[in-house]
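Minutes, project check-in

Agenda point 3 was the complex the collaborators sent over. CS summarized: two entities, 228 residues total, and the question is how they sit relative to each other. Sequences were read into the notes so everyone works from the same version.
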Amino acid sequence: GAVVSQHPSRVICKSGTSVKIECRSLDFQATTMFWYRQFPKKSLMLMATSNEGSKATYEQGVEKDKFLINHASLTLSTLTVTSAHPEDSSFYICSARREFNSPLHFGNGTRLTVT
Amino acid sequence: GENVEQHPSTLSVQEGDSAVIKCTYSDSASNYFPWYKQELGKRPQLIIDIRSNVGEKKDQRIAVTLNKTAKHFSLHITETQPEDSAVYFCAASMSGGSYIPTFGRGTSLIVHP
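CS then shared the predicted structure for the full assembly.
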């Protein structure tokens, strides 16, 4: 159990366009979902915490108007990278958990390339 | 907030040797310490976790120890195999912070056959 599905796995887009990434918990209800950005050979950088039905909490330095997060249900959270630029190219990965202090379950990640 | 330091950043061992990865945390209120393994191009996966009410936990070749006084915890892998090669992340989380885990920088473990 505890499967998290993330789509798309890879996306290439042109500078100035927007890209939406979906994160779904397939077999459990996730009270909280997290969005991370991971640079090559680097750790997971938390971008925001998303709780169902409420506004996401963004980490310092993360532009909330650029990285729009919606957590419409207990099984779905989306990250939209708006007006993407080449510097937004990265590996984005979501995670979800059933309840506080339970293990995180990660999606497979999305490799975003902005040309 | 919480700060997690992880060492070493890279660890190279021969197959069959043991590997130890260490993490320290700053906030004594942290009470949950998971370890994740991320193989190249794949998602991080939980391999073992420990809560602050125990000092050691073992699962086959993997063990984790926790020293609350010193605020450090370690991952021990015995009889390493090439398939253990991956990046390992430690994390710490605490009540009051909505249990948002803080991750270490990761350790790239390379097991040479």
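Noted in discussion: Chain B has a mean pLDDT of 92.
Follow-up: revisit at the next meeting once the mutant set is ready.
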